[in-house]
Amino acid sequence: MVNRVPSGGDSEYWTAFEAEVLPHAVRLFRLAMWFERNRADAEDVVQETMMQALRSFHRFRTGTNCRAWLVTILQRVVSNRRRARSRSLLVSDPDDRLAHMVAFVPPVPQQLTDESMLASLRRLPRPFQEVIVLCDLEDLSYKEAAEALTIPLGTVMSRLHRARAQLRAALGTGEAVLAGQSTGE
Amino acid sequence: MRAEDHGVMNCRDACDMADSFFRGELLTETSHEILQHLAACPSCRAENVARRQLRDSLRAAFDRTPDLEPEPDFAERLHRQMRVAAATGRRQVPVAPRWFVFAASALLAAGLSGAIFMTASRTSVDALARDAIGDHWNCALKNRRIRMPVPLEEAAQRFDRAYRALLTIPPGETVTSQGRVTVMDRHSCVFGTRRFGHVVLEYRQHVMSLLVTADDAHSEGVLLPRDLVPQLHGAPVNGLSVASIRGAGHTILVVSDLEGRELRQLSTTLAVPLVGQLLSDLIPVSPRAMATLFPGAAPGRIVADADD
Lengths: 185, 308
Description:
The structure holds 2 protein chains of 2 kinds.
Chain A lengths: L10 H10 L4 H12 L2 H18 L9 H21 L7 H8 L12 H10 L2 H12 L4 H8 L3 H19 L3 H9 L2
Helix pairs in contact in A: 2-3, 2-4, 3-4, 4-8, 7-9, 8-9
Chain B lengths: L10 H12 L5 H13 L1 H23 L9 H15 L16 H7 L13 H17 L10 H7 L14 E3 L4 E12 L2 E10 L2 E9 L16 E2 L8 E7 L2 E7 L3 H23 L4 H7 L15
């Protein structure tokens, strides 16, 4: 069975899609790469996301948050892939393994590097990473994040609250350290 | 007046709604209530400042890190693919070639035609590299194996005692100047008809495989390596590169999507001690000689030092 997309003669459809959606490709790749941790898989995820977006672009309302719409699709693609992986006989989730293998060593409060910040984010449990990435990095609203993750809005808020607390504890930061970093002291 | 009583709104509500407030998603009246609360509550103000600074720092780190960058031609390839999909109305072949378990040899042959690893061996090292990439892809990246993996100690008894060396080499964590290499898993597995000892590693969010396989019976196995510099195998295939070194009748391959030079450096760190261990299991050498020849190798079989 062939998955049909709105075609061919409708060049306006393509022009609008090209202008509105395709510029987000690189950003979507960064997001996909964060979750998939493998270039080939990340490319697959982005391509699948774009294909679904192309098929349903007629439902997208111009002027609304296109990035949030695409991120929702991407998150669904990532979740479906993860569910398919977890159904395989040989279960091995690198994220879980990493989370359990990396011993938590309370960091010394100091100037934070990009690497240390992202490593701390990476060490959070996956559900916490997801809400931080969607809400704080991708700027989705609670409602958009809830739709993307197919969880209740209250759960988004609760996870976000706990995720931020864990992240700040892991970074060992108080306001002073972050303030120092931001002012370049 | 208690902090939580500033205005109509309490601290918990102000905290919960702060994100929405800063995004401009709230009704005017609610926004005013939050503003009133923040004006009067120093701890909520401080909490919001800290929250925004953390978010801004995280965002900057996420946007800057090169580990999340796509390949330079990715956007262009995707654009082309989507244009064709839109024009034809059909689902297209994916941007990244699909990797099928048993059907990749033609693609690999083309990709590995520039292989630079030269030995007088009847078993083509291209074929080994092909199998190594296949095993890395299916086992390390996709957890998709035809047969269950075998624990290394059992595999050492049943198939090849060399696998025993992988129980300790590489160690659980190796610190390099660029970052840590962490062992995720150790086992023996099969790709196609070839069995490997397999160590799955992680390095700066890259998954790597260190694979050991015995040289084929009909090939000229290499006992002593010509040098201790792992060789890269031609151009990357599907983003994956292979470096290898031969010795003690085995080939040790390191597979990853890292750039060639970095892969080679890491391969030296990971594979050379392993060659040393495999050799010392075959040929008694003194610990001093071992340390000189193969820095980082385990003592292996301890024999009297010739100078004692």
